[in-house]
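Input:
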Amino acid sequence: MAYHKITLTINGEPEQVDVPSNMTLLKMLRERLGKTGTKNGCAAGECGACTVMVNGEPVNSCMILAVECDGSEIVTVEGLSDHGSLAPIQEAIMESGGVQCGFCTPGILIASQALLNRNPNPSEAEIREALVGNLCRCTGYVRIIEAVQAAAQMV
Amino acid sequence: MLEAHPGLPEFDYIKPKTLAEASRFLADHAGEARPLSGGTDIFVRMRDGVWKDKYLVDIKGLDGTDEIVYDPSKGLTIGAAVAMNRVSAHPDVKKHYAALADAVDKVASYQLRNRATIVGNICNASPAGDTIGACLLLGGALDVHGVDGARTEPLASFFEGPGSTALKPGDVVTSLRLPLPPKGLVGRYYKLGRNKSSDLSIIGVTVVGFPDKRAASGYRIKLALASVAPTPLVVAQVEEILAAKPVTEQTIAEAAQAAMDACTPIDDVRASARYRKMMARNLSQKALTEIWNQLGR
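Output:
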């Protein structure tokens, strides 16, 4: 199988990685770069646990090849905080009780941050629509939605 | 160790520099190479072992595939690699092709629509494809680059069965073209899934309508169904009934019945054939009534 040398930026840090054709961005992040904040849930583009930002837009990292990300800017959940100081969405989700088992949380944080970046003051309907692709089996979503609303107020 | 989620099988990722190179490679490796755009269907099927291609040929970035252009004299051209979110966010798509924008927004999730493409939805030729009905009703055609050069494939004769199309080895679809919309066009997509959002459709109903002086009723109203037949289904009788007779509650009921009679659904994990047939009638009736209200009777 062919290997490809790719150069990309992950949370602001330049990286060079030699990846096989069939390696997904998710697998590269977790197994090559140790960024295990991004979770492997369904591996079919349904659950959103693996959501990361590629060039500012959220995507399912299980559904994109690492080689396709050559030259891209990636932001994972590890990149949301700034030198240890949490982003408003991270503060808000803790405060509201929007985290229980925590497995969906990295994906929810990235999808929510991406929403707030394109729409700083989203309605409840817009928040629900933006999080359609992020399944949570614990919280029932209400507190997650409250967290996004609270984060919008904090910014 | 048993893996809960097996990774992708082995294949080689190919990034051709020109369309000619892409077509040649795909033709030379017929049966073991596949064009790759968003990959949202491909990766699922490869992980499941349904598709076993040795090569994925990335067509993103090739001649015009990344562009979406509305020309007020010609219509809309959507490049094969343009992600769905870019299509539904395009102001001219919302304004002139509402049925398509609506259908796009009902596909899976926002994240997935950042990768998934309309041309990919068409080429996979799933009977459940949410965006295909709008493309059919809006008179879409595909620009195809094959080993013998460029040609056009009208969507009306494109679908041959589930996953089966008029495409031949070496073909790369470069864009979808939609002609200028008729004056006063309105449209919508109605999707019934097992949940309110993100699921594949149990059935889908696309409707478009516009005033038409040549029709006895004064209106031309068209309807297409998803997930009820081996291919996406345009129900011609709906258009005929609602063009020939005045549009009323009664003729709408008659047209909805025609939609139900035209479909030949199957039982599957999402719903039974019987349920699909009944829902085809009910949702068609709702869709036609709402589009009729929107046309401003």
